[in-house]
Amino acid sequence: MKIISILNQKGGCGKTTTAVNLSSALAREGYKTLLIDFDPQAHTTFSLGMNNSKGICELIEDYLNTGSPSLDSYITPRTENLFVVTSSLGLSAIEHKLNSREDKLYILYKILGPAASLYDYCIIDCPPNLGVLSLNATFAGNYILTPFLACDLSLQGINVLNQIIEMMAEAHPTTLSFFYLLTQYDRRFRYSLEFLERARSMLKNKLLPIIIRTNINLRESQSLGKTIFEHKPYSRGSYDYTKLAEKIIDITQQIKWTRLFLKNKKFKEVHVVGDFNQWQKNEKYKMKKIDTETWTISIPLKKGKYHYKFFADEFWLTDPLNSFEENDSFGGKNSVISIR
Ligand SMILES: Nc1ncnc2c1ncn2[C@@H]1O[C@H](COP(=O)(O)OP(=O)(O)OP(=O)(O)O)[C@@H](O)[C@H]1O
Ligand SMILES: [Mg+2]
């Protein structure tokens, strides 16, 4: 499952519109897609004409009470291949509860673990701030997709966002890919073309080549509780979000994000080393400790066969959760993983 968090602390830049219509476009392409409304404003829920039956609030409550909720009970099917975890205002109260927990940044990461093989994509719509919910989505995701508007303050906002995520990443190592999506773009203004040049020179190849143009049908569909494909399938909005989904599929399908786990209370530092990082201990492959005993990391791997080990403090260990092993050249064993 590829997890894409739609994140920007700035309000009104197209996060919800992108979450709803990108998810719907991925589902139409035949990919089983889970859409999580992770915003107490519940705009994704309303934009899809749904109400909060049993959704994210109940799911997190269940996690806090039992430690292993059945995700299925909190998912509502919306159309073929599109499944939704709805939200409601109660999520802000839960956000406060999370603040007192040691694992407060990894709740969503843990909740989504069992869904990894059940869905092709998971899209998370974040609130317009960088509080504990957005940070949960950041650490649960493999990709961060940031929609932004054609104005210079938006570019400044992206700088702030990057700085904050970099600061967080120092304490919580992460292997994330970032993409930026220009939305509500109107090319009739000279300013827009000049802005696009500025955005390209700042964001380089992280700026997606697909641009979402201003389209009143997108606004209408949101208030009607429909996706753009249900409301106006031949509109510019429908075309742009289909193109975006094709691009996202193109980028993400070449790579499989693989999660590794190690349980140990005593280790102070654990890295994963293998032929994917030339057997070098590397900050990017430092595992994060998500509770008192669980170390984990998600690593992006292309098709192929890989050998690896954990390097924990001074010790080399094979992966106790992986029974596939091969001899190494020092008379020991390596764990082996194959990506098809
Ligand atoms: N391409 C577009 N063309 C026209 N209107 C759009 C477009 N994209 C979004 N909008 C409208 O702009 C407004 C803000 O969009 P949206 O709700 O997606 O932003 P958001 O980033 O999720 O906001 P918030 O930060 O409050 O969650 C909505 O009314 C939406 O319908
Ligand atoms: Mg929103």
Set down the secondary structure blueprint.
Blueprint: E1 2-6, H1 15-28, E2 33-37, H2 43-47, H3 56-66, E3 76-79, E4 82-85, H4 91-98, H5 107-112, E5 121-125, H6 132-140, E6 143-149, H7 152-171, E7 177-183, H8 190-203, H9 216-224, H10 228-231, H11 236-252, E8 256-263, E9 270-274, E10 288-289, E11 294-301, E12 304-312, E13 315-317, E14 325-327, E15 333-339
Parallel strand pairs: 1-5, 1-6, 2-4, 2-5, 6-7
Antiparallel strand pairs: 3-4, 8-11, 9-12, 10-11, 12-13, 12-15, 14-15
Helix pairs in contact: 1-11
Structural class: alpha/beta
| Helical proportion, percent range | 25-40%
Radius of gyration: 21 Å
* Largest sheet report: 7 strands, mixed
Corresponding CATH architecture of the largest domain: 3-Layer(aba) Sandwich
CATH secondary-structure class of the largest domain: Alpha Beta
Task: Give the low-pLDDT segments.
Answer: none
Question: Which small-molecule ligands are present, each listed once?
Answer: adenosine-5'-triphosphate, magnesium ion
The ordered string of helix (H) and strand (E) elements is EHEHHEEHHEHEHEHHHHEEEEEEEE
How would you describe the oligomerization state of the chains in this entry? single chain
Tell me the overall shape: globular
Q: Which fold does the CATH topology of the largest domain refer to?
A: Rossmann fold
Give the total of domains: 2
- The overall pLDDT average reads 92
Strand order of the largest sheet: 3-4-2-5-1-6-7
Got a strand count?
A: 15
